[in-house]
Design a protein that fits this description.
85 residues; alpha+beta; 26% strand; globular
Length: 85
């Protein structure tokens, strides 16, 4: 395991430069089920998750080549609002 000084000092993982966070209107597991096939099959998305416990319903995406604009379009075309935080 690689030692990370930031994580050691703060107790929080270091920010991944390929990781983006967005405020969304994804409200429930049904919403997640709607975006799951879109994000799972999107070229250039390494991983993603939605925090339904957050009031902002934060979507975290790790990019493996997808552009931010393309990602925003995917989520908006699925019927959800999304903005970078």
């Amino acid at each position: 395991m690689k030692w990370n000084i930031f994580e050691k000092l703060t107790g929080k993982p270091a920010e991944d430069p390929n990781s983006w966070r967005f405020r969304t209107s994804i409200m429930c597991n049904g919403c997640i089920a709607k975006v799951k096939p879109i994000l799972d099959n999107a070229e250039g998305v390494a991983s993603w998750k939605v925090n339904l416990d957050s009031p902002d319903r934060v979507l975290t995406v790790v990019s493996n080549g997808i552009t931010e604009d393309d990602l925003l379009a995917l989520v908006r075309n699925a019927g959800f609002t999304i903005e970078r935080i």
